[in-house]
Design brief:
2 strands, about 25% helix, 1 helix, single chain, about 60 residues, alpha+beta
């Protein structure tokens, strides 16, 4: 990839990071709202045990 293309691509990536909030529309079965807790060097959210093995989507809201 040429240097010009790399520079243009990096500018596009930077522009995407500077956006504010975005809107998501999600359809699903259930929703819970939780606060992420510290767990070592990462965060953790506990979910109901009947959700084990299910697909979930996590959206940071603040």
């Amino acid at each position: 990839m040429s240097n010009e293309k790399k520079a243009k691509n990096e500018k596009n990536l930077d522009a995407g990071k500077s956006r504010g909030k975005v809107k998501f529309e999600v359809y699903g079965e259930e929703m819970v709202e939780k606060t992420v807790k510290l767990s070592g060097n990462s965060g953790r959210v506990y979910l109901p045990p009947d959700w084990v093995g299910r697909r979930v989507k996590i959206i940071r809201i603040d």
